[in-house]
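Researcher: We're teaching a course module on how sequence relates to structure. For the next exercise, students receive a sequence and then see the predicted structure as tokens, so they can try to spot secondary structure elements on their own. Here is the exercise chain.
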Amino acid sequence: MLKSDLIAILVQKRGVTQKQAESTVETIFESMKDALCGGENIEIRGLGAFHVKHYEGYQGRNPKTGQVIPVKPKRGILFRTGKELRDRVNRSSSQPTAPVVAAETVAPVPEAAPGSTPSPVTPETPEGTKEPGTGNAQTG
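Model: And here is the predicted structure for the students to work with:
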């Protein structure tokens, strides 16, 4: 969702003009930016909280040359979702994210003898095919 989408929703749902919606959204975002730049945290019930995190300075190292470089202290912004939003997002994603694999394509795993460790099973591939995920092609 973009800022322009928020403005369009304000126009549609609240019946305000485009200019009023733009001004409202800009005022809210500018106020949030000013608060965060001033080191304040922002908490919006039902959504989450923005936290300003202070990082101390430290001695870094250039990975290429090995030269020690001082890194200045800095601030970063963290966003933590509220429980209500996190629960709502998890409820709405009730569909599985991983693809379902057909039963006949899965190689059976042999049972290990008691007291031994099982050896890894590698699926066999026909000559001249590429095994998915390995990047190695067999040629012949």
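Model: If you want an answer key for the exercise: The first strand starts at residue 42 and ends at 44. The two ends are 51 Å apart (CA to CA).
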